[in-house]
Design goal:
Elements (H helix, E strand, L loop, with lengths): L8 E6 L10 H9 L2 E4 L5 H4 L7 E4 L2 E2 L2 E2 L3 H12 L4 E6 L9 H10 L3 E5 L4 H8 L13 E5 L13 H4 L5 E5 L5 H10 L7 E6 L7 E6 L3 H8 L5 E5 L6 H4 L7
Parallel strand pairs: 1-6, 1-7, 2-3, 2-6, 8-9
Antiparallel strand pairs: 4-5, 9-12, 10-11, 10-12
Length: about 260
């Protein structure tokens, strides 16, 4: 499907949270059509096995302290590949537009005159709690939920997230990439008025066979993180809805 006469199209595709069964039909179809696939670090082997066997696969994943390519280099590579291939898939964990830098890549491509299509994916902030038997909302416990990143852009002078303000503004708080910043986040939530006894859950490797859930309280979060040796990738959920987990565990099962 390659052609030197045409500028290709880039698809920013969400791979979902890990379980291959949560991949969308559209995402699977594009992986089978792709000429080139640029994929992130946390994409499961089961999903990578769905890629067109004749396609070029390029790992561009970023883990803490270990970046295969910088964000700028990834954008430039996408633009270059669009000059040489028809179907370029940028495969991103979760949803491209939820803490996935999809917006940055989309802007760079649009500014370069490249056609882009965004294919949403199931974000871990929704899927991992579901697999952990934690409903994010419930009429008796939570009427509001917020999704927040615990890892903001490097070098930002003034953080965008006001944790003290969030403390009592919403019922359920879901934090992405927050493990290494617990020492900053927890004190601010407590200072903002959140009860020390508020349930908190760490969901490690959510939706995968390696999923592990550790439940504690807000005041014990930092100690539990150390004692349980929580590993990335992990999601943090804070809220009274976690009380429902023990009741739901006996009756809910994932296929």
């Amino acid at each position: 499907m390659t052609s030197s006469q045409l500028i290709g199209k880039v698809y920013l595709v969400g791979a979902g949270p890990g379980d291959v069964g949560l991949l969308t039909v559209r995402a699977k179809t594009l992986l089978e059509w792709a000429d080139v696939v640029l994929y992130d670090a946390l994409i499961s082997p089961a999903i990578l096995n769905l890629i067109n066997p004749e396609a070029e696969k390029i790992h561009v994943g970023k883990r803490r302290g270990n970046h295969t390519l910088s964000q700028g280099e990834i954008c430039r590579l996408l633009i270059d590949l669009a000059q040489r291939h028809a179907v370029i898939v940028r495969l991103k964990g979760g949803d491209p537009f939820v803490f996935g830098r999809g917006g940055e890549e989309c802007l760079a491509l649009v500014e370069a005159g490249i056609t882009v299509e965004v294919v949403p994916g199931v974000t871990s902030g929704v899927a991992a709690p579901a697999y952990a038997h934690i409903p994010l909302t419930h009429r008796d416990f939570s009427s509001s939920v917020v999704f927040v990143t615990g890892h903001e852009a490097a070098g930002r002078y003034q953080p965008r997230v006001n944790w003290s303000a969030l403390a009592t503004a919403v019922d359920t708080i879901v934090i992405y990439m927050g493990l290494h910043h617990l020492g900053e986040i927890v004190p601010q939530l407590l200072a903002g008025g959140r009860s020390p006894q508020t349930p908190l859950a760490f969901i490690e490797s959510g939706t995968t066979p390696q999923q592990r859930v550790v439940v504690t309280t807000l005041e014990r979060a930092i100690a539990t993180y150390d004692e349980a040796q929580i590993q990335t990738p992990a999601l943090i959920v804070i809220g009274e809805v976690i009380h429902l987990r023990s009741q739901l565990m006996g009756g809910l099962h994932q296929i």
